Amino acid sequence: MKIQIQRESLVPYEIDLSDVTLLEALKKIKTTQDSSLSFSSSCRSSVCGSCSMRVNGREVLACGYKLQDGDVVEPLKNMPVLRDLVVDMDKALSFNAKANAWMTPHAKTPALSEENAKINEVQSDCILCASCYSACPVYAVNEEFLGPFALTRVWKYVSDTREEDTKEKIDTIQTNGIWDCTLCNECTVVCPQNISSKMDIEMLRMRSSMQGYSDPNFASFGDDFGGGFGFDGSPVF
Ligand code: SF4
Ligand code: SF4
Questions:
Q1: Residue 69 burial by CB count (10 A; 0-12/13-18/19+): exposed, middle or buried?
Q2: What is the pLDDT of residues 112-167, one digit of tens each?
Q3: CB within 8 A of 177, min separation 6: which ones?
Q4: Which of 95, 138, 217 to mutate to test the pocket of ligand 2 (most atoms within 8 A of CB)?
């Protein structure tokens, strides 16, 4: 099987393997052909999120992707490449803190019922692989955009029935946040955990509207044309 790997340039490799994952192939190349090849991996079970990369332009977890002849393997986009297939995810990960994506500490956190735990069960499955930041066209042009997994995490805590004060979280995501998303759904398509950040962002938009916020792009559209529309859809001039 012949594949190419993006290093300083695209490097061809031939491997005598079939029916293997990309991670198995990378390990084989590293141990038998080129010990300098660099990539990240850990659990080998699609749980840790550390082996995310791109194949033929699409984000995958190397441990879960079955390699095909002719595949082109590249590092994630929109993040500095440290070496070969290893990227620096620090900036993307820092958005969790910037977006207040945590539960406000309580003197005594109430217990979460089994039923309420199901509300944000999917969002809790994020493995921080950063595939969604690699695929996001808005993050590609605005590196201050809070981005998919941070906003998913904000929705996780805003929708948590134990969180008493969601105002600060909603306030924080108004700038470089929910209204900058184009709802293109690329983040959903690449997520190995079937999380839809796009849908979570839509939920946050709805919650923001209930707290009196509106889409600033829509508001300026109204200004440009001498008017706009109120929350109930009625024209405001
Ligand atoms: S939301 Fe999905 S794609 Fe994004 S970091 Fe979490 S698991 Fe990865
Ligand atoms: S839906 Fe929004 S967050 Fe997701 S990839 Fe598109 S622009 Fe980015």
A1: exposed
A2: 788 888 888 899 999 999 999 999 999 999 999 999 999 999 999 999 888 887 99
A3: 99, 145, 146, 151, 204
A4: 138
- pTM beyond 0.70: the answer is yes
Reduced DSSP (H G I as helix, E B as strand, rest coil) percent helix, strand, coil of the chain, to 5: 35, 15, 50
Give the other-Cβ count within 10 Å of 54's Cβ. Answer: 20
Instruction: Please identify which residue in the block is written with the tokens 């184009």.
Output: 182
Which of 123, 185, 191, 205 most suits a substitution to test ligand 2, by most atoms within 8 Å of the C-beta? 185
Query: Ligand 2: which atom is nearest the Cα of residue 182?
Result: 7
Cβ 173 under 6 angstroms from ligand 2: no
Torsion of CA 166, 156, 189, 192, to 10 degrees: 150
In angstroms, rounded to a whole number, what is the distance separating the alpha carbons of residues 57 and 68? 14
